[in-house]
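Example 9 (inverse folding). The structure is encoded as follows.
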């Protein structure tokens, strides 16, 4: 049984800033398949990976029609955040600065209550669509409504260009601003948690090394070993839905940010773990 209090680092005093990197493994409990795991879509059907390649998408209208049908049927539209998403959302209430850096496109961290401006979506979001020609970004729900109404490959309303989900496909670079903010968070944190990521996709995985280089404690929670386990202060193989709430509880149980650093006269003190919400 894991001693979570030791995992979060009793020897290093209060944790002031936490960066969490999440991958597909955190969303499988919410019914969203892990694309690279043993039961993953790509593992079972390599042709599915072709659907996620940018060059194929923009050059092949038939592939786009299939993509829109796949989007209509995606489990994320009805998925609910699970215990791990909810625990991470609760961490912000403990007074520590927290950044959630995610490789997921499902929006479940925000749905769980993590502040949207604290969630860095490295691979974009499936809740928006973007035009590949003019960059116009609109709601996915509106595009899906057009597909349901009979348009099998809806075009950009502004310029007639090809619409795609606002996600980073194979063959597309990451958003430099989002990646830059993720690197800043990795450099500034005391504790870097990698959760449910195989840590095989760069540059996301290298954020672990960046955090360690800048003095952070690295804790990896993943079912299988990762290439970064050698750098980790702790590796946890227990189910994510159990490990993350326990880790967060251990973090909230210790004294949060020293009052002189973040709180001023007249401000409320940071909420403790046992403070009730509402009246
Ligand atoms: Zn356009």
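The amino acid assigned to each position is listed next.
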């Amino acid at each position: 049984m894991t001693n979570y209090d030791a995992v979060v680092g009793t020897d290093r005093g209060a944790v002031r800033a936490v960066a969490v990197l999440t991958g597909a493994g955190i969303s499988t409990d919410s019914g969203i398949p892990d694309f690279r795991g043993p039961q993953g879509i790509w593992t079972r059907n390599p042709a599915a990976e072709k659907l996620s390649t940018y060059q194929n998408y923009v050059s092949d209208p038939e592939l786009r029609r299939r993509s829109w049908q796949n989007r209509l049927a995606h489990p994320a539209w009805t998925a609910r955040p699970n215990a791990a998403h909810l625990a991470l959302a609760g961490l912000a209430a403990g007074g520590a600065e927290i950044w959630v850096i995610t490789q997921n496109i499902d929006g479940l961290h925000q749905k769980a209550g993590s502040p949207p401006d604290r969630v860095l979506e490295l691979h974009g979001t499936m809740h928006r669509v973007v035009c590949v020609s003019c960059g116009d970004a609109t709601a996915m729900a509106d595009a899906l409504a057009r597909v349901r109404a009979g348009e099998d490959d809806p075009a950009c309303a502004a310029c007639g260009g090809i619409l795609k989900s606002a996600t980073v496909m194979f063959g597309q670079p990451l958003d430099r601003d989002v990646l830059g903010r993720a690197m800043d968070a990795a450099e500034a944190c005391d504790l870097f948690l990698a959760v449910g990521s195989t840590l095989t996709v760069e540059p996301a995985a290298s954020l672990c090394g960046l955090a360690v280089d800048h003095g952070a404690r690295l804790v990896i929670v993943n079912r299988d070993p990762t290439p970064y386990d050698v750098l980790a202060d702790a590796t946890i193989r227990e189910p994510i839905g159990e490990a993350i709430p326990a880790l967060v509880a251990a973090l909230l149980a210790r004294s949060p940010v020293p009052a002189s650093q973040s709180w001023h006269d007249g401000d409320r003190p940071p909420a403790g773990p046992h403070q009730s919400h509402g009246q």
